[in-house]
Write a structure and sequence with these properties.
The complex is a heterodimer of chains A (151) and B (229). Helices cover 60% and strands 0% of the residues of chain A. Chain A is mainly α and 151 residues long. Chain A has one domain. In chain A, helix 3 packs across helix 8 and helix 6 packs antiparallel against helix 8. The termini of chain A are far apart. By secondary structure, chain B is mainly alpha-helical. Chain B has a domain of 112 residues. In chain B, strands 2-1-3 form a three-stranded antiparallel sheet. The longest helix of chain B has 38 residues. Chain B is globular, with a radius of gyration of 22 Å. Chain B starts with a helix and ends with a strand. The chains are: A mainly alpha (151), B mainly alpha (229). At the A-B interface, helix 1, helix 5 and helix 6 of A face helix 1, helix 7 and helix 8 of B. Chain A: It comes from Aequorivita antarctica.
Chain lengths: 151, 229
């Protein structure tokens, strides 16, 4: 019984200690001129879908729920956000070359159509980020038009 | 006492599961690093190590690529020491086309592993592409092309077959535009399959159609659109 108690205490200390390890928060109040929504000014519908289901990992500003401030969840998220932004950062949209924009639009269309984005693990934790079939179609239709204009 | 036991078990389980979840990626990275070091001296094993790394994350690709450049591409280093700048340009562009063709052949054969390997090779060649001998305007265009093509090559290096083909489509456009600037010594054929993703093109050294988008399912579907000399 004594051993159990010691283990419990060690685990508790470790868990509390973890909370002090800093993570880089992905938060910014600035919406740059190069932002996708600023540049392309889509309909309100599309705007909302993108912000709620994509911008958490694909922009410089994540809307963190409370439990994401807790370790080790915060580490897990930090990693996801870093990867997401490396692939595509909506805030930096207009800094991309025409060629790259085209590639990104193409990838977005495929990923959304194939239901690979938003990530399953992300939607699992953020129910409001889930997008319906209709919303998917709206978004894809919009992106297709945008892509045509870029070609 | 019983309560304490239960509580400990729950906390321990939660802790372990959370830790494994968050550390999974880090652990993988460590493993890869170790692997790299031990495999470094043995050139023969190199291909195997590349394949094991196929699913690795983005950061690691950098180190793999460096590895790749130093180990595989002896030609590059040899060349830079002995041959004039202008000739090197040409061989960079030539190497890109050669890597692209290896990738295309792997897709024709529906071989995911070979395609991934060719993608990584192409990525490293693109990374080392020296554009300095071209005009300012061409340089800008080439840089845009290289930046975009590198991303596609990188994805091909770590994706499933259907993704590899999606990226190959856009990559083919990049390489076609690149060849328009750099020129080509050997004749290339721009070929076209009207079925894949609303119509998709690719480049080949041979006039015969071997479709990289469907492999054996529709090997001979397509037509020659253009001859590039």
């Amino acid at each position: 019984m004594k051993i159990l108690r010691i283990i419990l205490i060690i685990l508790l200390i470790a868990f509390v200690g973890m909370q002090f390890v800093p993570t880089r928060r992905n938060q910014s109040n600035i919406v740059p001129k190069t932002d996708f929504l600023v540049v392309n000014n889509p309909s309100k519908n599309v705007n909302t879908i993108l912000q709620e289901s994509c911008y958490d990992c694909h922009s410089n500003n994540t809307d963190y729920p409370w439990y994401n401030k807790m370790q080790p969840i915060a580490w897990f998220l930090e990693h996801h956000i870093k990867e997401g932004k490396d692939e595509l950062n909506f805030n930096e949209w207009d800094t991309y070359s025409e060629r790259r924009k085209n590639s990104k639009l193409n990838a977005m269309i495929h990923q959304i159509e194939d239901e690979e984005m938003p990530l399953y693990s992300y939607v699992l934790m953020h129910r409001d980020a889930e997008i319906s079939k209709d919303e998917r179609q709206t978004l894809v239709a919009y992106l297709r038009i945008l892509k045509k204009n870029h070609e | 006492m019983k309560n304490l036991k239960v509580a400990t078990a729950i906390v321990a389980m939660a802790f372990v599961s959370l830790t494994t979840m968050s550390c999974r990626d880090t652990k993988k990275e460590d493993l890869h690093d170790d692997g790299m070091h031990s495999e470094m001296p043995e050139e023969g094993n190199h291909d195997d190590s590349m394949m094991n790394h196929e699913n690795s994350m983005m950061d690691e690709n950098d180190s793999i690529m460096n590895h790749d450049t130093s180990m595989m591409d002896h030609n590059n280093t040899d060349r830079s020491n002995t041959v004039m700048d202008s000739k090197m340009q040409n061989s960079d562009a030539k190497q890109v086309v050669a890597d692209y063709m290896a990738l295309k052949d792997a897709l024709v054969a529906t071989n995911k592993e070979d395609a991934a390997k060719a993608g990584k090779k192409l990525e490293s060649t693109l990374k080392g592409f020296n554009v300095s001998s071209y005009s300012a305007e061409q340089q800008k265009e080439l840089k845009d092309i290289i930046e975009d093509a590198m991303e596609h090559a990188e994805h091909i290096g770590k994706s499933e077959m259907d993704h590899q083909r999606e990226h190959f489509k856009i990559l083919s456009k990049d390489i076609t535009d690149m060849v328009a600037i750099t020129g080509t010594e050997t004749t290339l054929y721009q070929q076209f399959c009207p079925m894949y993703d609303g119509g998709s093109a690719w480049l080949s050294r041979s006039k015969d159609i071997k479709n990289p988008y469907y492999g054996s399912k529709m090997l001979n579907c397509g037509k020659v659109e253009k001859e590039i000399n």
